[in-house]
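It is worth pausing here to work through a concrete case rather than discussing structure prediction in the abstract. The textbook approach is simple: state the sequence, then state the predicted structure, then interpret. We follow exactly that order.
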Amino acid sequence: MSINTNTIERPELAVDIILPVKANAVIEAGEFVVCVIGEGYAREGDTLNGSYMGIAQESVDATGLSDGDLKIRVKRPRIFKALSFLVAPNVINIGSFALLHGKTNIDVETDLTAAAASLQKYIGKIVGIDENTGQYVISAGF
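Step two, the predicted structure:
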């Protein structure tokens, strides 16, 4: 039996999205980006009340500008490697929640309730450790 490709959506490994930027936000290329729920504007990843949107592909500085004056291109990967993490990669963390901690760091938590209590943002699951680099491999939550 063959797969009917007319009815199955093939997932992309990453998609680029364009988001309006929040007034006074300063986002550097490579940092995590969040959108504040109820506002929809992109902000730095260390914003506590936002939803993870992806990784900034360019730098923007909206200092002194109004909401939406600038836009930013954000890559929303399905799978990515964490370059910076608070917990050293260890096989026991595979399957744990990957949490955004600041603009560039990943933290690890086995209990999502504890993560919510610490105001960290869920960005996906740790699905492995790269054998060559020792970095966590994360499957982004969608």
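Step three, interpretation. The radius of gyration is 16 Å. The CA atoms of residues 24 and 64 lie 6 Å apart.
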